[in-house]
Amino acid sequence: MRATMLLALTALATATVPSLASAQAAPAVTARADGADLATAGATMRVVALTDSILRIRIGRGGAMPEDASWAVDAKTRAQHVAVTPAADGFATKALRVRFRADGRLRVEDLAGNLISEDAAPVAFDGKGFALAKTMPQAEHYFGMGDKTGGLDRRGKSFVDWNTDAFGFGSGDDPIYKSIPFFIGVGGAGGSYGLFLDNTTRAWFDFGHRDDTRLAFGAPDGPIDYYLIAGPTTAEVVRRYTDLTGKAPLVPQWALGYQQSRYSYMTADELRSVAARLRQERVPTDVLWLDIDWQDRNRPFTVDTKAFPDMKGLLSDLKRDGFKVVTITDLHVAQAPDQGYRPYDEGIKRDAFVHRADGSVYVGPVWPGPSVFPDFTETKVRDWYGTLFADQVRMGVAGAWNDMNEPAIFNTPTKTMPADVMHRIDSDGFNPRTATHAEIHNVYGMQNTRATYDGLRKLLPDERAFVMTRASYAGGQRYAVTWTGDNLATWDHLKLSIQQIINLGLSGFSYGAADVGGFAGGPSPELLTRWFQIGAFYPVFRDHSAKGTPRAEPWVDGPDHLAIRRRFVEERYRLMPYLYALAEQNARAGDPILRPVFYDYPSAMRMSCDQSWTFTVGRSLLVAPAPHPDQPQAYDVCLPAGGWYDYWTGQRAGTPEAADNGPIQSATQATGQATEHGDKVRVTPRIDTLPVFVRAGTILPRQPLVQSTAETPSGPLQLDVYPGEDCRGDLYADDGHSMAFIRGVFLRQGMTCTMTSGGLKLAFGARQGRYAPWWKQLRVVVHGWSGDGAVSLARKAVAAQSDATAGTLSFVLPDQRRAAEVMIARR
């Protein structure tokens, strides 16, 4: 029935309609101070300008607007508005022109008349369902939608939003774990734009799958309530989308370190042995994870005291060795009456669990056996649920892992609750009422993470909470980081992980992860090593594998593979100052950590190389794995215009010097060529390295190696300067774990470099915040330098050393706490 309705709605949305030129009747527009209403025969469309670049569009049947409430966009944000300039057919903001057609179609342009978005047909209704259609220019491509499969670009594909336990999903399977009904159009005349459909039911999106001239979307029920977000750049769209749905909070710094997991480390002794081996092998590590077997009979909020007789002592010992421990807490509560099981007993007394349509408590089979489920759509239930983490906090557990929260139910055809299970909404501006699971399903996991995050924040109000989730909805980045779920140990899934994490970042979830090595199946030594290399640049870097599969710890394939894997983990820790500054930027602005190349370099959309594996970390590092990593063929890497350096050698990419051996051998050959949009270098893949490039115009902070973020680096902070246009870098530091940064206990400082007629000027901006960093000195390394150099700070000479082979000039400065300029002259 759903499939029949989807086809009917899509057909309505893509039906032939009169051209704009043939629409003769004047639209029935009613001006508003912040927008306008358009009345048609069966509905009213209201377009409100929240800002000059963000429009909210609601369509109500019979003139009645949908309820003004949302799980994703808070009331204060929804209440924003700006004054507009009215026109006979619509209105204008300082950035956009909105035009209505008499038949109910909407057109949005920039002020130069360039098309941003245009309805291809009026809204179509079918019972409670609806469909909308937009024109789809041939040059436009589509990204976002969370971690859905099917490749990086959504064009030509269709998707359904329905959070699904998708163990062992394939590279084209849909739906999977999350529902984020937001996409970004890139490449149209008006630049990039975003569209967010705030509808929690089983929404669908067709990006030209059925009709390659139409983009259609809709839902079987729920409100027609969507936001159109103008750019014109992709970065501006993402920032504005996170203005709407919320920024991810700054994670504790240890969350950026290497993380070791397995389903499951079965005993305290096994966990201790893994920790000891990591330290013995000198693999820097911050986090160990415990899956469901740490619990008594898989019951959440319990401990298997036979396997883990002294959890508090265990966690204390591991903390002394620099390890944090994150434990799983699934949302299903064991149905265990009269057994002294607090979560069940308290929940029953509070009437905190969801019910069937007949009023009885819903019971479904999951890991503990028969289980009940908290009704997270009630504020009071979320508040109660958060208190259940108190014992874990007292034991020293560092964070929570919310799994199975689609919600997953065993032994049912749908893998989840029946659609007629009832929830009681009392939250987020909704009128108190009951709602079916069909409406709540896609936000249920998000509200589970909200209850967990808020509970941890209340229990430790001056500490940053860390929560990882499998299921979520738009805006869920406010509460949890995420991973791509139960993936497979295949080359295809390694490629898929990059594309999923990129699209998660474009969808607000900057902290994305994939199980390094693959959860199910067992990787070959070469696959696990390559996955470690690429995973070292993920926002969250966790090695995880399933029961019954080969072990996947770094040392499992012998010393040669261990050495390569270790080197990449070590490089991540050296890059920690850069990664942490990106994390703080994400918390303030919403920019993802891992990005598609076109995010900062739009010309990359027109480059000729296979970029299906290529990504950037921030704007400054470009990582270019082989498009066919299981094969030995050489391949081309297209580098955006402006110049790039080989990260491993520090030499200009494509030069003979860049092919020389560095700490990790460079993969780039000496050959290179200029292209219309940048440079192209030829790469020969090798298992011992991964091509990484640094943008010319980067000041890259790096630190001495540590074994965990709990260890203070010894020595100066290094600033690698790669001269070029718009040369800049950022420093950010705080204590790494507390909320003191919101009270000004942080350090933020910008740096720039400028080419001069005689050399280079390095400038330190005024420092913000009052945090005292670990470093006392700065070691500056200028790359691409030839000959000797004279360095001066405040007109005082600074000793400098040149290295003709490396092409560098290096010197040491005291920490620059105030604005300062360093002059570097050739001689």
How many beta-strand runs?
A: 49
Strand neighbour order, sheet with most strands: 5-6-7-8-9-10-16-15-12
The outline comes out as globular
Roughly how many Å is the radius of gyration? 27 Å
- Broad structural category: alpha+beta
What is the arithmetic mean of pLDDT? 94
Total DSSP helices: 13
Determine the oligomeric state from the structure.
single chain
Structure description:
This protein is α+β, with helices and mostly antiparallel strands and 827 residues long. The protein is built from 13 helices and 49 strands. Strands 5-6-7-8-9-10-16-15-12 form a nine-stranded antiparallel sheet, covered by helices on one side. Strand 25 (422-425) and strand 26 form a beta hairpin. It is globular. The termini are far apart.
List the helices and strands and how they pair.
Layout: H1 2-13, E1 29-32, E2 35-39, E3 43-49, E4 54-61, H2 75-78, E5 85-87, E6 90-92, E7 96-100, E8 106-110, E9 115-126, E10 129-135, E11 141-144, E12 158-160, E13 182-186, E14 193-197, E15 204-207, E16 214-219, E17 224-230, H3 234-245, E18 258-260, H4 268-280, E19 287-290, H5 311-320, E20 324-328, E21 333-334, H6 342-350, E22 364-366, E23 369-372, H7 379-387, H8 390-395, E24 399-402, E25 422-425, E26 433-436, H9 437-459, E27 467-469, E28 481-483, H10 491-506, E29 512-513, H11 525-535, E30 541-543, H12 559-574, H13 576-589, E31 594-595, E32 615-617, E33 621-623, E34 635-640, E35 644-646, E36 668-675, E37 678-683, E38 692-695, E39 698-702, E40 717-722, E41 727-733, E42 747-755, E43 759-764, E44 777-783, E45 789-793, E46 796-798, E47 800-803, E48 808-814, E49 820-826
Parallel strand pairs: 18-19, 18-30, 19-20, 20-24, 24-27, 27-28, 28-29, 40-44
Antiparallel strand pairs: 1-2, 2-3, 3-4, 4-17, 5-6, 6-7, 7-8, 8-9, 9-10, 10-16, 11-13, 12-15, 13-14, 14-17, 15-16, 21-23, 22-23, 25-26, 31-32, 32-33, 33-38, 34-37, 35-38, 36-37, 39-40, 41-42, 42-43, 43-49, 44-48, 45-46, 45-49, 47-48
Helix pairs in contact: 7-9, 11-12
